[in-house]
Amino acid sequence: MSLPQQTTILIVGAGPxxxxxxxxxxxxxxxxxxxxxxxxxxxxxxxxLVIQAATLEALNDIGCLDDLLSIGDKxxxxxxxxxxxxxxxxxxxxxxxxxxFPFTLVIPQTNTEAVMLGKxxxxxxxxxRPFKVVSVKPSESVEEGMFEVRFASGEMIKTKYVVGADGAxxxxxxxxxxxxxxxxxxxxxxxxxLSQLVLGDVTFTSPPQIPTKTLxxxxxxxxxxxxxxxxxxxxxxxxxxxxxxxxxPVEDGTAPQAPSAEYLQALLDRYGPPALSSDPAVNxxxxxxxRLYWSSRYRxxxxxxxxYFTLNPNGGGAILLLGDAAHIHSPVGGQGMSLGIRDAISLxxxxxxxIDSRDSxxxxxxxxxxxxxxxxxxxxxxxxxxxxxGMMTASRRVWAPLLMVGFSVLRFLxxxxxxxxxVAYRISGxxxx
Length: 433
What we know:
alpha+beta; 20 strands; 8-stranded mixed sheet; membrane; 7-stranded mixed sheet
């Protein structure tokens, strides 16, 4: 497909955030939209697995939820273990007074994208691929108040608004000259054993003896996560597939970019829950990874833009940033994609208000208010994920008896409804709405 020469809104990035932006704009009655992506369909290797309650609320508001709910699983509890003992069970059902969706939705990102793409197709909104942005400049014609966006293919499109939803290495953000740093000035990004995580979608030689579909475990400064894929969204419909995540100890050096089954199993044997161990001395029902469908490595980093928008100096439109182009943080807690989708959906009415505004002197207030709110929420999520990292790596820094006392207190408090509800509320993102 060849690009049109001009559009009102150009969305760069066709992941969940970019497509959610388009759906939100369409819901506001804005239809002059072009979406581009640098990758061919199916090449995106980012694999988020969870959508939180606040994001389900937002997706429901734009009519893009029913199909997702029909595919994914809806667990309402998440067990967190310290070693082999349960530390706290997070009960999302306690969110019922605050949301219509008192659970987390477990659904692979590939399915989320497929549902969104199907919605866009129904609306006649196409994704143009592969188009890699190389420059974003104000149009030389001041009267137009447009941006000229050029691509590696040599093509160019004029647009009033550019939405950067193109990930952590955002070309749009770089072209806008927007700073992207750790909000606490921690540019060393040293999170100990949690500085690297490896992920894999796997089957096991025998079903793991774990009574829950999701389980997080940390011990000795390391972390692992186990989650079962929904039956309707499994990479292999002939068997049960699981997502496993493990931190990589500092002494192990740099993890492979695509870890093997053997590499993942060795980490699970050392730091995973006993039920995933292949060692009969540890696990009464030993099991091991049988098949590997996909794997990847993630380097833990926190960063946020200093501003979410840049106005066209010639007047008119703006460059706007959201999702990973605006903020990144540890994947612990499953917050990244959910927060980005809420960025995207919240932008729809803001862009609508700016387009409809006839007062050019005050129209930037729409973006200022939106950017300030979204940045505040992102800072909160970054702080929350850093707190979780700090708790999980505490054994490397805190005197062992004192650490055990702290965990005993947390385990005691975790029995109470108010504690379970507070933790679930923080993770759900409902404070954003």
